[in-house]
Amino acid sequence: MINRQTLAAPVVCAGVGLHSGEHVRMVMQPAAAGTGIVFIRSDIQDRDNRIEARADAVTAVRLGTTISNASGASVATVEHLMAALAGIGVDDLVIEIDGPELPVMDGSSAPFVELIHKVGLKAHAMPRRAIQVLKPVVVETEGRRASFLPALRPMIEVDISFEHQAVGRQSCVFDVTPDIFAEDIAGARTFGFQKDFDTLLAAGLARGGSMENAIVLDEDGVVNPEGLRFDDEFVRHKALDALGDLYLAGAPILGRYSASRPGHAINNEALRALLNDPTAWKMVPMRGGVVEEVALAKS
Fold first, then answer.
1. At what angle do helices 264-275 and 233-246 cross, to 10 degrees?
2. pLDDT over 70 (residue 163)
3. Annotated catalytic, 80?
């Protein structure tokens, strides 16, 4: 039986928000069993500043995932940290942040993984439970498609297609385990196109973006002097984003998430479609990363 986990000690980091450009300080605090993932906007004192990381708390999905509470307190670009927590297996955590957006760090989940590894994990006495997918759930919109399929372990499968020569068509599939995530997925950085930069700035986005925290592409290819970390870093980052968005379920998902040309919007739409169908899933205890006895429903 696998038990729930939190951090063994608090850990602090700071940086700028990718879109807001604001400097923020974030403290990840160990939390009691059953707390889940909770954000606290420490700069907000006049109303409820507690924001639970849940699928139904998502209020914006343009170039990042924003979650909010009923009083209007919000925190943006949560997906990279959520991916790190999902990939490493952190169930309970209180995250205090003094601004509206998480620090982008280097544009990947790797800095968060390094911080978690630095302080280590603490196991609770409470068993870890997962959402077991019982039947296919499919959503399609504007040429994008995402589905959950029954499987014996958490899996992510993503394919993307961009006309840019440096990207083209790429695909990625991986089992969600701490070792695989840390080695193969966590380091994949977010990316953007130089031609879109002025438009994003005019829309109040990408104010903190730079080659220090994103892969930048111009007409000729990758602008970053260090190049890519992986040949297919672009699709690996899309898989990272998907994992982070799906962890807003509040538990690991025992199933195969397959997405074609995914983005934050369809990730959240697919997750809500799964959770809103009580015949499509059930909660089960986790043993060794999978469920011991699984009765897969026929499609």
1. 40
2. yes
3. no
